[in-house]
């Protein structure tokens, strides 16, 4: 199964160095992706 994700975020004072996205599976957090600039 494939699920498309779309998110919009606004950060004050510049962008963070790392952003992680997790999915709550009901049994805890499951990492989806991590991006580092």
Concise summary:
The protein is mainly beta. The chain has strands at 18-24, 29-36. The mean pLDDT is 84.
Features:
mainly beta, two-stranded antiparallel sheet, 37 residues, elongated
Task: Tell me about the largest β-sheet.
Answer: 2 strands, antiparallel
- Name the average pLDDT: 84
The helix tally amounts to: 0
Helix content: under 10%
Low-confidence runs of at least 5 consecutive residues = none
Biggest sheet: strand arrangement: 1-2
Q: State which percent range the strand residues make up.
A: 35-45%
Distance between the termini: 29 Å
- The ordered string of helix (H) and strand (E) elements is EE
Structural class: mainly beta
Oligomer type: single chain
Mind telling me the C-alpha Rg? Answer: 12 Å
Number of strands: 2
Structure report:
The chain is mostly beta strands. It contains no helices and 2 strands. The chain has strands at about 20-25, 30-35.
Layout of strands and helices, then pairs:
Elements: E1 18-24, E2 29-36
Antiparallel strand pairs: 1-2
Region (Disordered): 15-37
Biased composition (Polar residues): 19-37
């Amino acid at each position: 199964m494939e699920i498309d994700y779309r998110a919009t975020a606004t950060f004050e004072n510049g962008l963070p160095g790392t952003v992680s996205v997790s999915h709550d599976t009901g049994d805890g957090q499951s990492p989806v992706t991590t991006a580092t600039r």
